[in-house]
Amino acid sequence: MILQIKFRGNGVIIEAVSDSRFLLIAGKPIGEPVARHGPFVMNTSKELEQAYHDYHNGFFGEIKENEHAMAKF
After folding, report:
1. pTM of the shown model
2. Which ranges of 1-73 does DSSP label H, i.e. alpha helix?
3. Rounded Cα distance, 54 and 2, in Å
4. 48 CB contacts (<8 Å, ≥6 apart)?
């Protein structure tokens, strides 16, 4: 395990066992249905199917050499 996430009251405690990078995104609930599978999060199963179709058929574009490097903070 690289990261351990603990929910405490109104906050979150994140502990890393080793050098790690992570992305934490939060927001107010918007009351929409959520369908998720693998890296995709959509509102319906049909939208998930379309996302997988688009991904497998190259409609998401491509990452060129050196464009995939994460920013260092």
Report:
1. 0.52
2. 45-56
3. 32
4. 35, 36, 37, 40, 42
